[in-house]
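Appendix B. Extra example for self-study. Work through it before the problem class; the solution is given directly after the inputs so you can check yourself.
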Amino acid sequence: MKLSYYPGCTLKTKAQNLESTAIASMAALGIELEELPRWNCCGTVYSFADDDLMHHLASFRDLIRVQEQGHSKVVTLCSFCYNTLKRVNLLVKQDAEKMKTINTFMDEEPDYKGQVEVVHLLEVLRDDIGWAKIAKQVKRPLTDLKVAPYYGCTLHRPKEAAIEPPHRRTALPELLKSLGAMPVNFADTDTCCGSYQAVARPDIVTSRVRDIITSARASGAEVIAVSCPLCECNLRQKQRELKEKEGLAEMPILYFTQLMALAFGLDPAIEQCEAESADPRPLLESKGLLPAGTGKRC
Amino acid sequence: MINITSKKLRSQVIAKINEISGQNVNLCYQCGTCSGACPNAAEMELIPRQLMRRAQAGLDEDITRANTAWVCVSCLSCSVRCPRGIDIARVMEAVRLLRLRKNVDYVHVPELAPEAIASLPPIALISSFRKHTA
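Solution. Structure tokens for the complete assembly:
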């Protein structure tokens, strides 16, 4: 089975470990992620202004690319891309006038017909594959690994773009259980990490990360599972500063796809970009989940 | 002290905020749920509830001068909880746009440290430039 796959900018640069482990894990589950030809940046953030259609064009163009590819569904790994593409898609599907305006403006492109569905990989795992099939694929169960499932903002808000309703936040914990891990009850599962304030006000991000790490540790977690490359970067990078200045003990941050690849026995599952902070390898080695000396830096 | 006049209550700026955001700031009944939910409220010169109150009173200069909308990262913790159904993140976006559409940047790209740019993922840089530069 082939699925149309939209990577996004960060997966080709700072989050290559998210992409490589997702592609390898999905292949193990019998699904080929077929990269969208000629994709462009989705714009990363959805425009909230009623009078601003211009900033929806980037995502709109990507939806046309999916239509050209002949797929009715496109899967994203990056939570930001998911949210932006999903909401632009919903906007134009629900507002025929806006759809017409953008189609007319982009007269060099074929018209978008509104037939594409945008989904996140967690939805594919839950709805198209199922937890039982994932559990069967596990070669190296993540036994005794206590994981805080951390969604961040964009997989849960707003509700019309959420991958699950607010009273049933189960996809990530269920996946972790299927891999043999122990998801902890984590109160800050969708608390904002400070997001793009990493540029203008990095102090705000540091403050958010301090709260999130402290909360995860209080919940009994040893590692945090993330989906969003911005959450991953913020949580990992700011821990270095918090360790140096405040002595806060580090907690490894891993993409859910890294944990999946690890459980499926796909090596090297733990490729670390800039692994100088919150290195997961000592923890995984102590649990017998990673043979000593494996995992490479990229 | 807040000085409310009939002229301020007819503020064109507030009408513009309502227009851009598609929201009605007068619906707010000041429960403060937004500010309790906001993870960055402690960093704001006006917390979301205070900003909404000033918008109702037509105090547009207070709103555009405060750092509130710049600190907001549209995490939507407020919007999903507002009992009056106001999408407060949209109001914040409108306040940002009032400045950005006058070509006023909040982030000055040439002043960013090269090592910061090198360490940040594209997702952070593009989002910041989209929300914080004209």
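Self-check: The interface with chain A takes residues 19-22, 39-40, 42-43, 70-71, 73-77, 79-80, 87, 89-90, 93-94, 97, 106-107, 112, 116, 119-132 of chain B (CB under 8 Å). If your reasoning did not lead you there, revisit section 3.
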